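INFO batch 0412 | record 1 of 1 | parsing
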Amino acid sequence: MKRGKFIKTAGIGALLIPSTAFAFNINLKQEEEQLDKGLVQKFVGASHGKMDVVKELLEEHPTLINAAHDWKLGDFETGLGAASHVGYKELVQYLLDHGAQANIFTAALFGRMDILKPMIDFSPSLLNARGPHGFTLLHHAEKGGDDASKAKEYLLSKGLKETKIALY
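INFO prediction complete | emitting tokens
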């Protein structure tokens, strides 16, 4: 075998073997670091109104910030989702400041028309999006109070009437 062909052949093999091994190790590492379901449930439960517990848990387990608990039948909820649907804006802001992934429900809670309207224009079916427990955008806008009054008016003008929709 000529030197050039050997290098090309060996080079491809050298690239493939470590890549496969690296991918395998990542999968093992992710399995080892899976969050305890009870811990996630405690965090999400506390996010409905116990800011001191949320802060303590996040300090000890920062990866809880975007963890979701499955309340059964696909009713997934994060700490941000919990704090948003109960209208606990101070906790919502705390979670956002610590890296929680904002969503359209959070935008409705804060009356952020600059986010809400373009998202619904982009995907009109979002008007009927179901948040945790089936709470709608209108529910979140109502929880937002005066700050979200324009969002509430906008959602009503688009025909949204329900504050909660069955998940299935």
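INFO post-check: The first helix runs from residue 3 to 32.
INFO record closed
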